[in-house]
């Protein structure tokens, strides 16, 4: 047997494993990044929760500080966070710097995975093998089921605390509104809505993977 023929099954397995990992990471990192940048979600919550009225400020002031925070957390945002009208403590500044590293990490992950994804698409079309798309849909389904179970067991409030204790090695995320008034503009409900939007978008991404897998199978079958 031709040595190349012997290696093809191994190459196919590696391509599908890599494709599953890359595609799953791409969907999750993209969904996190897009939710961060999706400002209408915050605008709606700000108005529905009457944040301006509750805090005795204008909506314009809230939005100015919110936009500054979002821009800071982007890949090419400023190195230092300075709110237009709000003070912040040193621990608050450290916490936001840690948050920026996480969001920037997701953004770099999305960029790198997108490049790898483009290459995988081309190679998979030549090999006529897109099983990694279905594997991605299954992997995401398992991840979402696990997350749903955690939510059902712990509830949002506990999950929120567990997440911060897992991700951060300090308690700087516990803000004092007197020294870090930005927390008055970032209620827990908004973070819950962000989490739900991420999960819904990830589920949509899994659905697209399954749809494309079935479409390519039909396409290849029609060409036989």
C-alpha Rg (nearest Å): 22 Å
User: SSE order in H/E notation?
Assistant: HHHHHHH
Task: Find the count of extended strands (DSSP E, 2+ residues).
Answer: 0
- Provide the β-strand percentage band: under 5%
How many H/I helical runs?
Answer: 7
- Binned, the helix content reads over 70%
Q: Quick one: overall form?
A: elongated
Distance between the termini: 25 Å
Work out the count of structural domains.
Answer: 1
The largest β sheet comes out as: none
Low-confidence stretches: none
Helix/strand-derived class?
A: mainly alpha
Average pLDDT, all residues: 93
Description:
With 224 residues, the protein is mostly helical. It has one domain (3-222). It has 7 helices and no strands. It has helices at residues 3-37, 39-48, 51-55, 59-72, 90-127, 131-167, 188-222. α1 (3-37) runs antiparallel to α5 and α6 runs antiparallel to α7. The longest helix is centred in the middle third of the chain and has 38 residues, at 90-127. The chain is elongated.
Give a summary of the structure in a few sentences.
The chain has 224 residues and is mainly α. Helices cover 78% and strands 0% of the residues. The protein has seven helices and no strands.
């Amino acid at each position: 047997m031709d040595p190349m023929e012997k290696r093809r099954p191994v190459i196919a397995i590696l391509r599908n494993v890599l494709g599953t990992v890359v595609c799953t990471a791409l969907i999750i990192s993209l969904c996190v990044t897009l939710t961060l940048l999706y400002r209408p979600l915050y605008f709606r919550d700000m108005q529905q929760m009457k944040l301006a009225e509750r805090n005795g400020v204008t909506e314009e002031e809230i939005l100015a500080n919110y936009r500054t925070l979002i821009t800071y957390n982007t890949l090419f945002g400023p190195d230092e966070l300075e709110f237009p009208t709000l003070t912040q403590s040193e621990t608050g500044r450290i916490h936001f710097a840690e948050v920026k590293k996480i969001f920037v990490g997701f953004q770099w992950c999305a960029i790198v995975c997108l490049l790898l994804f483009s290459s995988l698409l081309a190679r998979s079309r030549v090999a006529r093998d897109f099983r990694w798309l279905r594997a991605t849909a299954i992997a995401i389904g398992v991840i979402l089921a696990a997350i749903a179970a955690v939510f059902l067991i712990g509830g949002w409030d506990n999950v929120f605390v567990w997440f911060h204790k897992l991700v951060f090695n300090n308690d700087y995320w516990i803000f004092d509104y007197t020294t870090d008034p930005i927390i008055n503009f970032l209620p827990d409900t908004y973070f819950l809505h962000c989490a739900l939007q991420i999960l819904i978008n990830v589920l949509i991404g899994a659905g697209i993977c399954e749809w494309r897998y079935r479409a390519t199978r039909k396409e290849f079958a029609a060409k036989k």
